[in-house]
């Protein structure tokens, strides 16, 4: 039934701020993985029969525990992947909101729907499918598994979570929190695996679907493997979100949003403001102000509230980002501020004069790097925004709300905000188009991704067939 995993490794929890190895974890053996899947399969038979009320009670308790352990979990996150503590705490708050949202709304969203048509009557029921496999990234180590686990557990599915290899402490803490909330053994399982062994679970016949968040390369491999097994997938992949500033934008408010949208989590967010598209009449003012704000930011310990910016997740990631910056400069791009690396730290950077085909033009620069494009007018700004292989999120900044909505509708993306950074909410669906993925997470659409929408139609015994 299952495919054996390869040779096991040791997973290291490393503080990117100072390179200290915090803890090590042994990767699960093939036998342990098979046993975990078997327990999940068995647990599903019972969990699917529980009531919505029972599941909602456990989800509410998980939300309570998230709030109670807010500081503890935020600190683990900051130590393990470098997120500033002031950014980590709100992530835990968001997780709690997600669990509460599905506890409060899951039963209503999944309620049967009646059909009364000329051909007959029917009822559409939403039934759980089984084991959902979540492959999660490191950048939001509690939010990412929450947005899979909360809706799927409420729907009656069970979840296997394979978290990123560099956040094993976060993965363990999340799994323990669910167990403490009352989630039974096997209903949620933390698979302690390296990336090279993550794919073996997809081939297992007992696993019915995969929710993946991560790189395009990784997503393509997972989707291909799942496709060969005819399994449903949801993909949230890379993004190069446009941050469009029109000439009538409130500059004070827009600069404030830009600083948050670009530097939150040190810019390591799929929906962060990556391509800053400025209508030329306001470009000089925006760049002058943004450059000065970037220039005074100081690096430091992400646990220190006074730190201006922290490290990226690993020194390897910083080196990769540095290479993208340097290759873009070699191709003709100009750096207004920043651009230097020190260990896992990358200076907050603003780049202009972006050459076509350079990394800054075609790739996702996952870090504190703002890519500037100057547009002649609104129409040109829309053209630049859509000149991308990606389509995850975006934002438009203008004092004319109707104009903002009109522009937002023309942006080729899964979400687009007006006078707000591209963001995520428990009650609103999120997902991408183009190479940013497919499917939706959160809100009503998220809980519907892995259910069997079954039509039941009952006819009188004396009806005429067809």
Automatic annotation (TrEMBL):
<dbReference type="GO" id="GO:0036243">
    <property type="term" value="F:succinate-semialdehyde dehydrogenase (NADP+) activity"/>
</dbReference>
<keyword id="KW-0521">NADP</keyword>
<dbReference type="GO" id="GO:0004777">
    <property type="term" value="F:succinate-semialdehyde dehydrogenase (NAD+) activity"/>
</dbReference>
<dbReference type="InterPro" id="IPR016162">
    <property type="entry name" value="Ald_DH_N"/>
</dbReference>
<keyword id="KW-0560">Oxidoreductase</keyword>
<dbReference type="GO" id="GO:0004030">
    <property type="term" value="F:aldehyde dehydrogenase [NAD(P)+] activity"/>
</dbReference>
<dbReference type="InterPro" id="IPR044148">
    <property type="entry name" value="ALDH_GabD1-like"/>
</dbReference>
<comment type="similarity">
    <text>Belongs to the aldehyde dehydrogenase family.</text>
</comment>
<feature type="domain" description="Aldehyde dehydrogenase">
    <location>
        <begin position="10"/>
        <end position="455"/>
    </location>
</feature>
<dbReference type="InterPro" id="IPR047110">
    <property type="entry name" value="GABD/Sad-like"/>
</dbReference>
<dbReference type="InterPro" id="IPR016163">
    <property type="entry name" value="Ald_DH_C"/>
</dbReference>
<dbReference type="Pfam" id="PF00171">
    <property type="entry name" value="Aldedh"/>
</dbReference>
<protein>
    <submittedName>
        <fullName>Succinate-semialdehyde dehydrogenase [NADP(+)] 1</fullName>
        <ecNumber>1.2.1.79</ecNumber>
    </submittedName>
</protein>
<dbReference type="InterPro" id="IPR016161">
    <property type="entry name" value="Ald_DH/histidinol_DH"/>
</dbReference>
<dbReference type="InterPro" id="IPR015590">
    <property type="entry name" value="Aldehyde_DH_dom"/>
</dbReference>
